[in-house]
From TrEMBL:
This protein's GO CC annotations: chloroplast outer membrane; stromule
Protein name: Cytochrome b5 heme-binding domain-containing protein
Membrane-spanning intervals of the chain: 111-130
Gene coding for it: LOC102722942
Species this protein is from: Oryza brachyantha (malo sina)
GO MF annotation list: heme binding; metal ion binding
Amino acid sequence: MPTLTKLYGMEEAARHNTPDDCWVVVDGKIYDVTKYLDDHPGGADVLLEVTGKDAKEEFDDAGHSDSAKELMQDYFIGELDPTPSIPEMEVFRKEQDVGFTSKLLANATQYWAIPVTVVGISAVIAVLYARQK
């Protein structure tokens, strides 16, 4: 029967980054290595440097033995949550529909140059037409 493990986000794992509380992520698995910091052959600093990210590459590059990999199981506390964190959406309230006249007045005040130009051209055309008669 499969064993259920607790899922943690990378943000949660990254918050455990002190000598008194240190979690390390290796290949999607999370280990609480706080009690192992003093015993780690590479020193506590090596483990503290890889908090907040998946340290699989660093772990593999160090060439850990099979016994080291077995020892890790003693510190296993859960797995990295594979679902991406979804940022909260902002909710916008649709403004109440304003009447046609309100929209027309708002646009006229915003684009005042267009009606003034139309009236000006109309006045010039009227004056020129009146002079021809």
